[in-house]
Specification:
27 strands, about 10% helix, five-stranded mixed beta sheet
Protein backbone atom coordinates (compact mmCIF):
# COMPACT_ATOMS: atom_id res chain seq x y z
CA UNK A 1 0.00 0.00 0.00
CA UNK A 2 2.85 2.35 0.87
CA UNK A 3 4.50 1.71 -2.51
CA UNK A 4 1.21 2.44 -4.33
CA UNK A 5 0.89 5.76 -2.54
CA UNK A 6 4.44 6.68 -3.46
CA UNK A 7 3.78 5.78 -7.12
CA UNK A 8 0.55 7.80 -7.12
CA UNK A 9 2.25 10.94 -5.80
CA UNK A 10 5.13 10.40 -8.25
CA UNK A 11 2.69 10.36 -11.20
CA UNK A 12 0.98 13.52 -9.96
CA UNK A 13 4.33 15.23 -9.60
CA UNK A 14 5.38 14.10 -13.09
CA UNK A 15 2.15 15.44 -14.60
CA UNK A 16 2.54 18.77 -12.85
CA UNK A 17 6.15 18.99 -14.07
CA UNK A 18 5.06 18.16 -17.63
CA UNK A 19 2.42 20.90 -17.51
CA UNK A 20 5.00 23.37 -16.24
CA UNK A 21 7.17 22.52 -19.27
CA UNK A 22 4.40 23.56 -21.74
CA UNK A 23 3.93 27.06 -23.13
CA UNK A 24 0.99 28.78 -21.45
CA UNK A 25 -0.99 31.49 -23.26
CA UNK A 26 -2.65 34.27 -21.27
CA UNK A 27 -4.49 37.05 -23.11
CA UNK A 28 -4.87 40.45 -21.47
CA UNK A 29 -8.48 40.49 -22.76
CA UNK A 30 -10.67 38.10 -24.72
CA UNK A 31 -13.24 40.61 -25.99
CA UNK A 32 -13.27 44.14 -27.39
CA UNK A 33 -16.11 46.53 -28.19
CA UNK A 34 -15.35 49.00 -31.01
CA UNK A 35 -18.48 50.96 -30.15
CA UNK A 36 -19.81 53.16 -32.94
CA UNK A 37 -17.85 52.75 -36.18
CA UNK A 38 -18.27 55.20 -39.07
CA UNK A 39 -18.56 53.33 -42.37
CA UNK A 40 -16.82 56.09 -44.31
CA UNK A 41 -13.73 55.91 -42.07
CA UNK A 42 -12.84 52.47 -43.38
CA UNK A 43 -11.51 49.38 -41.54
CA UNK A 44 -10.92 49.41 -37.78
CA UNK A 45 -8.51 47.16 -35.89
CA UNK A 46 -7.65 46.06 -32.37
CA UNK A 47 -4.63 44.28 -30.89
CA UNK A 48 -5.21 41.38 -28.53
CA UNK A 49 -1.99 41.06 -26.52
CA UNK A 50 -1.02 37.75 -24.93
CA UNK A 51 1.90 36.52 -22.82
CA UNK A 52 3.65 33.16 -22.78
CA UNK A 53 3.74 32.29 -19.07
CA UNK A 54 4.99 28.75 -19.69
CA UNK A 55 8.48 27.25 -19.92
CA UNK A 56 8.67 26.51 -23.67
CA UNK A 57 8.30 28.68 -26.83
CA UNK A 58 4.72 29.37 -27.92
CA UNK A 59 3.73 29.07 -31.58
CA UNK A 60 0.43 30.20 -33.14
CA UNK A 61 -0.46 27.62 -35.79
CA UNK A 62 -3.72 29.13 -37.09
CA UNK A 63 -6.08 32.08 -36.65
CA UNK A 64 -9.56 31.94 -38.20
CA UNK A 65 -12.24 34.63 -38.27
CA UNK A 66 -15.96 33.83 -38.26
CA UNK A 67 -16.50 35.80 -41.48
CA UNK A 68 -14.59 37.34 -44.36
CA UNK A 69 -15.28 40.86 -43.11
CA UNK A 70 -12.76 40.25 -40.29
CA UNK A 71 -9.11 39.97 -41.31
CA UNK A 72 -6.77 38.68 -38.59
CA UNK A 73 -2.98 38.88 -38.42
CA UNK A 74 -0.70 37.62 -35.65
CA UNK A 75 2.82 37.14 -34.34
CA UNK A 76 4.38 34.59 -36.67
CA UNK A 77 7.65 33.81 -34.90
CA UNK A 78 7.81 31.66 -31.72
CA UNK A 79 7.08 33.63 -28.54
CA UNK A 80 9.69 32.82 -25.92
CA UNK A 81 8.79 32.18 -22.25
CA UNK A 82 7.97 35.49 -20.56
CA UNK A 83 7.58 37.34 -23.88
CA UNK A 84 4.40 38.74 -25.43
CA UNK A 85 2.74 38.42 -28.82
CA UNK A 86 -0.26 39.88 -30.63
CA UNK A 87 -3.34 38.87 -32.57
CA UNK A 88 -4.71 41.80 -34.58
CA UNK A 89 -8.39 41.75 -35.58
CA UNK A 90 -9.42 44.09 -38.41
CA UNK A 91 -13.07 44.71 -39.29
CA UNK A 92 -14.16 46.26 -42.60
CA UNK A 93 -17.48 48.13 -42.13
CA UNK A 94 -18.00 48.88 -45.82
CA UNK A 95 -21.56 48.04 -46.90
CA UNK A 96 -22.24 46.52 -43.45
CA UNK A 97 -24.45 48.96 -41.55
CA UNK A 98 -25.80 47.97 -38.13
CA UNK A 99 -24.52 45.89 -35.24
CA UNK A 100 -21.86 43.21 -35.64
CA UNK A 101 -20.45 40.49 -33.38
CA UNK A 102 -17.61 38.30 -34.64
CA UNK A 103 -15.17 35.73 -33.28
CA UNK A 104 -11.50 34.96 -33.93
CA UNK A 105 -10.32 31.44 -33.10
CA UNK A 106 -6.62 31.21 -32.15
CA UNK A 107 -4.93 27.79 -32.24
CA UNK A 108 -1.53 27.37 -30.53
CA UNK A 109 0.77 24.70 -29.11
CA UNK A 110 0.05 26.12 -25.65
CA UNK A 111 -2.36 25.39 -22.89
CA UNK A 112 -5.18 26.01 -23.72
CA UNK A 113 -4.73 24.97 -27.35
CA UNK A 114 -7.73 27.01 -28.56
CA UNK A 115 -8.65 30.54 -27.50
CA UNK A 116 -11.70 32.34 -28.89
CA UNK A 117 -11.59 36.13 -29.06
CA UNK A 118 -14.64 38.33 -29.57
CA UNK A 119 -15.17 41.70 -31.23
CA UNK A 120 -18.36 43.69 -31.57
CA UNK A 121 -19.62 47.13 -32.46
CA UNK A 122 -22.13 49.05 -34.52
CA UNK A 123 -21.53 50.49 -37.99
CA UNK A 124 -23.01 53.91 -38.70
CA UNK A 125 -23.78 54.05 -42.45
CA UNK A 126 -22.14 56.78 -44.46
CA UNK A 127 -24.45 59.53 -45.76
CA UNK A 128 -25.58 58.71 -49.28
CA UNK A 129 -24.71 61.06 -52.12
CA UNK A 130 -26.67 61.57 -55.35
CA UNK A 131 -24.04 59.37 -57.01
CA UNK A 132 -24.98 56.57 -54.60
CA UNK A 133 -28.75 56.97 -55.04
CA UNK A 134 -28.64 57.63 -58.78
CA UNK A 135 -25.53 55.88 -60.14
CA UNK A 136 -26.46 56.19 -63.85
CA UNK A 137 -25.58 59.58 -65.38
CA UNK A 138 -26.88 60.87 -68.72
CA UNK A 139 -25.73 64.43 -69.16
CA UNK A 140 -26.87 66.30 -66.05
CA UNK A 141 -29.66 63.82 -65.40
CA UNK A 142 -29.10 60.94 -63.01
CA UNK A 143 -31.22 57.79 -62.71
CA UNK A 144 -30.94 54.50 -60.86
CA UNK A 145 -30.77 52.43 -64.06
CA UNK A 146 -30.77 53.04 -67.78
CA UNK A 147 -33.80 50.76 -68.03
CA UNK A 148 -37.20 50.92 -66.35
CA UNK A 149 -38.70 47.60 -65.25
CA UNK A 150 -42.49 47.57 -65.11
CA UNK A 151 -42.45 44.03 -63.67
CA UNK A 152 -45.40 41.70 -64.22
CA UNK A 153 -48.48 43.37 -65.66
CA UNK A 154 -51.70 42.00 -67.15
CA UNK A 155 -53.89 42.82 -70.10
CA UNK A 156 -56.65 44.06 -67.77
CA UNK A 157 -55.81 47.78 -67.86
CA UNK A 158 -52.91 50.23 -68.37
CA UNK A 159 -50.35 50.34 -65.56
CA UNK A 160 -48.42 53.46 -64.46
CA UNK A 161 -45.19 53.39 -62.48
CA UNK A 162 -42.90 56.22 -61.37
CA UNK A 163 -39.11 56.13 -61.60
CA UNK A 164 -36.89 58.60 -59.74
CA UNK A 165 -34.53 61.04 -61.51
CA UNK A 166 -32.18 63.73 -60.21
CA UNK A 167 -30.75 66.95 -61.67
CA UNK A 168 -27.04 66.86 -60.84
CA UNK A 169 -26.20 70.32 -62.19
CA UNK A 170 -26.47 74.03 -61.44
CA UNK A 171 -28.99 74.65 -64.22
CA UNK A 172 -32.59 73.61 -64.72
CA UNK A 173 -33.38 70.63 -66.92
CA UNK A 174 -36.51 71.10 -69.02
CA UNK A 175 -38.04 67.98 -70.52
CA UNK A 176 -39.44 68.38 -74.00
CA UNK A 177 -42.99 67.24 -74.66
CA UNK A 178 -41.54 65.36 -77.61
CA UNK A 179 -40.78 61.69 -76.94
CA UNK A 180 -40.08 58.66 -79.09
CA UNK A 181 -41.82 55.50 -77.85
CA UNK A 182 -44.06 52.68 -79.13
CA UNK A 183 -47.77 53.32 -79.01
CA UNK A 184 -48.40 51.25 -75.89
CA UNK A 185 -45.97 53.34 -73.80
CA UNK A 186 -46.53 56.90 -72.61
CA UNK A 187 -43.97 59.01 -70.67
CA UNK A 188 -44.52 62.07 -68.48
CA UNK A 189 -41.80 64.03 -66.62
CA UNK A 190 -42.88 65.40 -63.23
CA UNK A 191 -42.02 68.23 -62.91
CA UNK A 192 -41.36 69.15 -66.51
CA UNK A 193 -38.75 71.64 -65.31
CA UNK A 194 -36.34 69.98 -62.91
CA UNK A 195 -34.50 72.56 -60.81
CA UNK A 196 -30.80 72.20 -59.87
CA UNK A 197 -30.21 69.39 -57.32
CA UNK A 198 -33.93 68.58 -57.43
CA UNK A 199 -35.49 65.12 -57.47
CA UNK A 200 -38.25 64.26 -59.90
CA UNK A 201 -39.97 61.30 -61.50
CA UNK A 202 -40.62 59.85 -64.90
CA UNK A 203 -44.12 58.40 -65.02
CA UNK A 204 -44.36 55.53 -67.48
CA UNK A 205 -47.74 54.16 -68.51
CA UNK A 206 -47.72 50.72 -70.15
CA UNK A 207 -50.90 49.69 -71.93
CA UNK A 208 -50.84 45.91 -72.39
CA UNK A 209 -54.45 46.02 -73.60
CA UNK A 210 -53.27 47.54 -76.90
CA UNK A 211 -52.44 44.16 -78.41
CA UNK A 212 -48.95 43.92 -76.96
CA UNK A 213 -47.39 40.46 -77.18
CA UNK A 214 -47.45 38.27 -74.11
CA UNK A 215 -44.34 37.42 -72.11
CA UNK A 216 -41.17 39.41 -71.60
CA UNK A 217 -40.43 42.36 -73.84
CA UNK A 218 -38.05 45.30 -73.94
CA UNK A 219 -38.90 48.52 -75.78
CA UNK A 220 -36.74 51.55 -76.51
CA UNK A 221 -37.84 55.07 -75.58
CA UNK A 222 -36.14 58.42 -76.15
CA UNK A 223 -36.54 61.67 -74.17
CA UNK A 224 -35.27 65.12 -75.06
CA UNK A 225 -34.13 67.96 -72.78
CA UNK A 226 -32.85 71.52 -73.11
CA UNK A 227 -29.27 70.60 -72.19
CA UNK A 228 -26.54 71.91 -74.45
CA UNK A 229 -24.86 68.49 -74.41
CA UNK A 230 -26.34 65.00 -74.06
CA UNK A 231 -29.86 66.32 -74.54
CA UNK A 232 -31.04 63.00 -76.02
CA UNK A 233 -31.80 60.36 -73.37
CA UNK A 234 -32.26 56.77 -74.53
CA UNK A 235 -33.84 54.24 -72.16
CA UNK A 236 -35.44 50.83 -72.35
CA UNK A 237 -38.74 49.80 -70.78
CA UNK A 238 -39.10 46.14 -69.74
CA UNK A 239 -42.25 44.28 -68.82
CA UNK A 240 -43.61 40.76 -68.53
CA UNK A 241 -47.17 40.71 -69.85
CA UNK A 242 -49.67 38.06 -68.77
CA UNK A 243 -53.25 37.61 -69.91
CA UNK A 244 -55.87 38.82 -67.46
CA UNK A 245 -58.60 36.44 -66.33
CA UNK A 246 -61.57 37.81 -64.43
CA UNK A 247 -62.45 36.01 -61.18
CA UNK A 248 -64.25 32.74 -61.95
CA UNK A 249 -66.61 30.54 -59.99
CA UNK A 250 -65.70 26.91 -59.36
CA UNK A 251 -68.27 25.85 -61.94
CA UNK A 252 -66.69 28.19 -64.53
CA UNK A 253 -63.24 26.80 -63.73
CA UNK A 254 -64.53 23.25 -64.15
CA UNK A 255 -65.77 24.15 -67.64
CA UNK A 256 -62.60 26.03 -68.64
CA UNK A 257 -59.91 24.76 -71.05
CA UNK A 258 -56.83 23.00 -69.65
CA UNK A 259 -53.39 22.89 -71.29
CA UNK A 260 -51.61 19.65 -70.37
CA UNK A 261 -48.23 18.49 -71.72
CA UNK A 262 -47.22 14.83 -71.83
CA UNK A 263 -43.74 15.99 -70.85
CA UNK A 264 -42.16 19.41 -70.36
CA UNK A 265 -38.51 18.30 -70.64
CA UNK A 266 -36.29 16.87 -73.34
CA UNK A 267 -32.56 16.10 -73.22
CA UNK A 268 -30.77 15.90 -76.59
CA UNK A 269 -27.70 14.47 -74.86
CA UNK A 270 -24.29 14.94 -76.52
CA UNK A 271 -24.49 16.64 -79.92
CA UNK A 272 -22.10 18.35 -82.33
CA UNK A 273 -21.78 22.12 -82.54
CA UNK A 274 -22.89 22.13 -86.18
CA UNK A 275 -26.03 20.07 -85.53
CA UNK A 276 -29.66 21.14 -85.87
CA UNK A 277 -31.92 18.93 -83.77
CA UNK A 278 -35.67 18.79 -83.27
CA UNK A 279 -38.11 17.33 -80.79
CA UNK A 280 -41.91 17.33 -80.41
CA UNK A 281 -43.83 18.13 -77.25
CA UNK A 282 -47.34 16.67 -77.22
CA UNK A 283 -50.03 18.73 -75.52
CA UNK A 284 -53.74 18.08 -74.93
CA UNK A 285 -56.79 20.12 -74.03
CA UNK A 286 -57.96 18.23 -70.94
CA UNK A 287 -60.60 20.87 -70.19
CA UNK A 288 -64.20 21.25 -71.31
CA UNK A 289 -64.04 24.24 -73.67
CA UNK A 290 -61.90 25.46 -76.57
CA UNK A 291 -58.20 25.86 -75.84
CA UNK A 292 -56.37 28.67 -77.63
CA UNK A 293 -52.57 28.78 -77.82
CA UNK A 294 -51.98 32.53 -77.71
CA UNK A 295 -48.25 32.60 -78.29
CA UNK A 296 -44.98 30.70 -77.92
CA UNK A 297 -41.68 32.37 -77.03
CA UNK A 298 -38.16 30.95 -76.84
CA UNK A 299 -35.59 32.43 -74.48
CA UNK A 300 -33.05 32.81 -77.29
CA UNK A 301 -32.88 32.86 -81.08
CA UNK A 302 -31.41 29.37 -81.19
CA UNK A 303 -34.78 27.70 -80.50
CA UNK A 304 -37.85 27.96 -82.71
CA UNK A 305 -41.24 26.59 -81.82
CA UNK A 306 -44.49 26.33 -83.76
CA UNK A 307 -47.63 24.53 -82.64
CA UNK A 308 -49.26 22.30 -85.25
CA UNK A 309 -52.64 23.67 -84.12
CA UNK A 310 -53.36 26.70 -81.96
CA UNK A 311 -57.05 25.90 -81.25
CA UNK A 312 -58.01 22.56 -79.70
CA UNK A 313 -61.38 21.04 -78.91
CA UNK A 314 -61.81 19.34 -75.51
CA UNK A 315 -59.83 16.07 -75.54
CA UNK A 316 -57.91 17.03 -78.70
CA UNK A 317 -54.11 16.81 -78.85
CA UNK A 318 -51.45 18.49 -80.95
CA UNK A 319 -47.69 18.93 -80.98
CA UNK A 320 -45.20 21.71 -80.53
CA UNK A 321 -41.98 21.29 -82.50
CA UNK A 322 -38.86 22.82 -80.95
CA UNK A 323 -35.75 23.20 -83.11
CA UNK A 324 -32.33 23.76 -81.53
CA UNK A 325 -29.52 25.16 -83.71
CA UNK A 326 -26.18 24.55 -81.97
CA UNK A 327 -24.14 26.85 -84.23
CA UNK A 328 -21.70 28.95 -82.18
CA UNK A 329 -22.52 27.16 -78.93
CA UNK A 330 -20.47 24.74 -76.87
CA UNK A 331 -20.81 23.08 -73.49
CA UNK A 332 -23.92 22.48 -71.41
CA UNK A 333 -27.01 24.20 -72.82
CA UNK A 334 -30.39 24.78 -71.21
CA UNK A 335 -33.15 26.58 -73.13
CA UNK A 336 -36.81 27.26 -72.47
CA UNK A 337 -39.93 27.87 -74.52
CA UNK A 338 -42.85 29.64 -72.85
CA UNK A 339 -46.35 28.76 -73.98
CA UNK A 340 -49.23 31.20 -73.41
CA UNK A 341 -52.82 29.97 -73.55
CA UNK A 342 -56.33 30.75 -72.33
CA UNK A 343 -56.09 28.11 -69.59
CA UNK A 344 -57.10 30.28 -66.59
CA UNK A 345 -55.39 27.99 -64.07
CA UNK A 346 -52.00 27.93 -65.84
CA UNK A 347 -51.93 30.52 -68.63
CA UNK A 348 -48.13 30.59 -68.76
CA UNK A 349 -46.22 27.30 -68.96
CA UNK A 350 -42.58 26.49 -69.72
CA UNK A 351 -41.01 23.56 -71.53
CA UNK A 352 -37.27 22.89 -71.30
CA UNK A 353 -34.60 21.43 -73.56
CA UNK A 354 -31.05 20.55 -72.54
CA UNK A 355 -27.96 19.37 -74.38
CA UNK A 356 -24.18 19.10 -74.18
CA UNK A 357 -22.70 20.65 -77.32
CA UNK A 358 -19.29 19.30 -78.32
CA UNK A 359 -16.85 20.86 -80.77
CA UNK A 360 -17.56 20.26 -84.43
CA UNK A 361 -15.48 17.74 -86.39
CA UNK A 362 -13.66 20.53 -88.26
CA UNK A 363 -12.55 22.12 -84.96
CA UNK A 364 -11.27 18.78 -83.63
CA UNK A 365 -9.01 18.20 -86.64
Amino acid sequence: MKNRLILFFFVLTLQAWAQDQKPLVVFEENAFDFGAVAEEDGPVSHEFVFKNTGALPLVISDVKASCGCTTPSWTREPVQPGDSGRVIAEYDPRNRPGSFSKTISVTTNAEPALTVLHIKGSVEPKPKTPEDDYPTQMGSLRTVYRSFNMGKITTKEPVTKSFAVYNDSDSSIIFSSRTVAPGHIQIEAVPQELLPQQKGTLKITYDATAGKNLGFSSDHITLFTNEAEDSVKAFSVMATVEEYFAPMTQDELNRAPRLTFDSKKHDFGNIREDAIVKTDFIFTNTGKSLLHIRETKANCGCTVSKPAKDTLEPGESSKLTVTFNTKGRQGKQQKTVTVFSNDPTAPTQQINITAVVNASESEER
